Amino acid sequence: MRHIITIAKTTLIESLRDRVFVGLLFFLLFLLGFSAYLSTLSLGDVARVIQNSGMAGMALICLLVTILFGAFSLYREEERNELYVLLNRVPRPVYLLGRFSGTAIIITIFSLVSGSTLFLLTLLFGGEPAFGLIWAVLWNICEFTLLSGVAFLFYAMGISFTLNAIMVIGIFIIGHSMNEAIESFIALGRFGSPLHLQSVKIISYLMPNFDLFDFRLEIIHREQLPFKRVLSALLYWLFYLAALLAAAGARFKNRDL
Amino acid sequence: MQITTQTTPILSIRDLSKTYRSREGDVEALTNLSLDLERGEIIGILGPNGAGKTTAVKLIMGFIKATRGNITFNHEELKAAEPRPHFGYLPESFRPNPNLTVGEYIGMQYNLALPAGTMTNRGETATKVSTLLNQVGMEPFAKRRIARLSKGMGQRVGIAQAIAGNPELIILDEPTSGLDPIGKSEVIDLLLELKNEGKTILFCSHILAEVERLCDRIGIIVGGNLRFLGKVDNFLAQHQADDLDEGFKKEIKCATL
């Protein structure tokens, strides 16, 4: 446990001092400010426009954080040969867990900054902010920690950084498109049987399925989040993440470095 | 060749081999390496580029799996992909994270090197870090960011992290690689100090002068094979050479015939 905390803490300190971190933070604030500007041009509810486009901006930034501070930092450490020094002292799965924990903290920081900025911007532009933004922050953390887990698994498998980044972006897009694609195919009558449909739905949950964390409509319209959906999303996140990290640890342990 | 030693060796390697498989065909990077390392001894492993020195080090450190052979440390067999808590290690072309200060980096390494279950506080860690940095002459630079260090200073930090856990065996892979003459001299002086403290050191180099100055015994690897293991005087006598440079060239010539 001490090793995980030490590596996580170091990951956080390294990242906070990285110019890329500051750059991404400014870019995030720019995106959120832009969403506030958009609200002044729209005819709709100011709060909805800010929160809707703001949450999209939050997701984009966290995708970049996942790639730059999650995946890239692992490859950079290996390239500097610092990885070997660390693995001399800690078991490989522990190293990955420590790095992942640090990445999760960075994702949390960006999500919290986004959520609180959106809240303030909505107030500033005369809208009524939704307290459900707290849920938006939580689901954002769940989504991108899961995506980081995927990036870590790809790293553990020895995939190059470029391919890792491309595949992570691909999985992000697919993970947000699965439900819509299935519904389209249902509407077009493309499924031959209920078994066919169920098989495709099971595959969509293996992908991972980020639509499970999409409560944007409920948050923007200030609706109560359905308890069952919330619970199943949290459980899905927990088990999927545990499986990803376990697989990454096991694969990393067997890999020649 | 004097593979075995008179007393119980601290490190014992038997028939260590590594074959890399590729589409172009198998490459035997190391073949049947056997040697014993006695406590308090310094062995220098020499060889041209691509001889198999780094492969040997990576096998000893467990970063890659051996195709054949075994390694024992204090009579216990070492397994691949496991940390080596009793080893200090400095890899070739080592570059620690530039965003940390020297003190923070060594503090992290010290914390990671502590045995499991050991409790420590900030004061104790700070004292230990100060001692380590003093030993390598880097105490005045404790608050300096690693990015602002010269290469020679960076290597001294690398040696500080290698001795952070008070290791029984220190393994250094090309510790003076890329350094200017002053940097080289500083590192050699440090290694001489460690030698005088009775540390056991295995180091790889292709710089003959430093090997001649530091080592009790030398091993020469060419084309993945250990061609000689013993004292420098014996090597020179065997090749009827005046110095290590001449003897080394003759050995390479013999190996390629």
Description:
The complex is a heterodimer of chains A (257) and B (257). With 257 residues, chain A is mainly α. In chain A, helix 2 (19-41) runs parallel beside helix 5, helix 3 runs antiparallel to helix 7 (161-187) and helix 6 packs parallel to helix 10. Chain A has one domain (2-254). The mean pLDDT of chain A is 89. Helices cover 81% and strands 0% of the residues of chain A. Chain A is globular. Chain A has helices at 2-16, 19-41, 46-79, 82-87, 92-124, 133-156, 161-187, 194-206, 216-220, 227-254. In chain B, helix 2 (102-113) crosses helix 3, helix 4 packs parallel to helix 5 (181-196) and helix 7 crosses helix 8 (244-256). The two termini of chain B are 20 Å apart. Chain B is an alpha/beta fold. Chain B is globular. Chain B has helices at 53-61, 102-113, 122-135, 151-162, 181-196, 208-214, 232-239, 244-256; strands at residues 11-20, 27-37, 42-46, 68-73, 76-77, 87-90, 169-173, 200-205, 217-222, 225-230. In chain B, the strands form 2 sheets. Chain B has a 6-stranded mixed sheet with strand order 6-7-8-3-9-10, with helices on both faces. Chain B has a 4-stranded antiparallel sheet with strand order 2-1-4-5, with helices on one face. The mean pLDDT of chain B is 88. Chain B has a domain at 95-167. The A-B interface holds A 2-3, 6-7, 10, 13-14, 17-18, 77, 80-82, 84-92, 253-254, 256-257 and B 58, 61, 63-65, 81-85, 87-97, 99-100, 104, 108-109, 111-114, 116, 158, 161-162, 165.
